Amino acid sequence: MQAHAERWLLAGFALVLAGCGGDAPADNGAAPVVGGTPAVTVPVAASPANTVEPASSVPDRLTVTTNEPFYSVRVDPDQLVLDGIGFAPRRMPVLGREVRATGRRWRARDGRGELIVEVERADCEDDMSGAPRDFTATLTLDGRTVRGCGFVGTPAPPPGEAAPMVAANTIPARFVGRWNRDAAACARPAASIDGVKVSPDELWFHESVGKVQRVEPLSDDRIRITAAYDGEGERWTSTQTLSVDGDRLTIVTEGRPFTRIRCKG
User: Fold this and answer.
1) How far apart are CA 258 and CA 97, in angstroms?
2) Closest C-alpha among 146, 154, 196 to residue 171
3) Which residues share a beta bridge with 48?
4) pLDDT tens, 196-238?
5) Are 149 and 126 contacting, i.e. CB atoms less than 8 angstroms apart?
């Protein structure tokens, strides 16, 4: 009888303990949601059913261009096509992308290196031609970042231009001549190291000569050239812009400008 009573007491005690316990909160591994709407990173292999991209004012197909150095990148959903002066187009598979309400970012790589393109919805002006563009952009190639502009389709020609100009291999006549620091230097060219001689197919500096490989008109008075230089025992290729304003010639090399006046005679 006593054993029977003890069994009933133990059963009742177990029921009391069960009633006091309660269920433990489920751990689903989800991190707490913090305010804000960060960019959504979209792996290339992600399924559209599993990944929802936010709406963006930047399209997923466009073109980005930069100046000095000149690059052009055609952005497609699955690849970036990089083009420039002095090398064949590089088709680089997209490895990842980020999407924001007012911007996009692509990361691509080929056997020669990595390319990152970032585009924001903001007005941009081509710093060479002055043409308006719809997007600002940065292009980072192997760690070096260059700023540029983005556009969809064929860009509008720069102000004052009736149609896009075609690249050639000779420098227009209005750029040709002897140029120097001032009138005194023009009068004594042999004593000056600052003189520049421009011919239709060459640029002569104090200790180097550049053989013109490509001439790209940017406006009536501005061109971008690529030349193969030889001087002081070295050889290199350089992209420069030349602009004429009356009797003044400005040459920009890697963002550094210098100006010379036209020498008479």
Assistant:
1) 40
2) 196
3) none
4) 999 999 999 988 999 998 888 888 889 989 899 988 888 898 8
5) yes
- Set out the domains of the chain in order of their start, with CATH numbers: 40-151 (no CATH), 173-262 (2.40.128)
Contacts of range 262-265, beta carbons closer than 8 Å, 24 or more positions apart: 262/177, 262/178, 262/179, 263/177, 263/178, 263/179, 263/180, 263/186, 263/189, 263/195, 264/186
Between 34 and 201, the higher pLDDT residue: 201
Q: What is the pLDDT of residue 40?
A: 59
Are 72 and 83 in contact, with CB atoms under 8 Å apart?
A: yes
Q: Is the peptide bond before 59 cis (omega within 30 degrees of 0)?
A: no
Kindly state the DSSP code that residue 154 receives in the 8-state scheme: S
- CB contact at 8 A, 195 and 178: yes
Concatenated DSSP letters of 162-215: SS----BSS--GGG-EEEESSHHHHH-GGG-SS-EEE-SSEEE-SS-EEEEEEE
pLDDT, tens digit (0-9, with 9 covering 90-100), for 191-204:
888 899 999 999 99
Measured CA to CA, the distance from residue 150 to residue 115 in angstroms comes to 16
SS3 5: helix
Let me know how long the chain is.
265
DSSP 3-state percent helix, strand, coil across the chain (nearest 5): 10, 50, 40
Per the structure block, which two tokens stand in for 241?
A: 């812009």
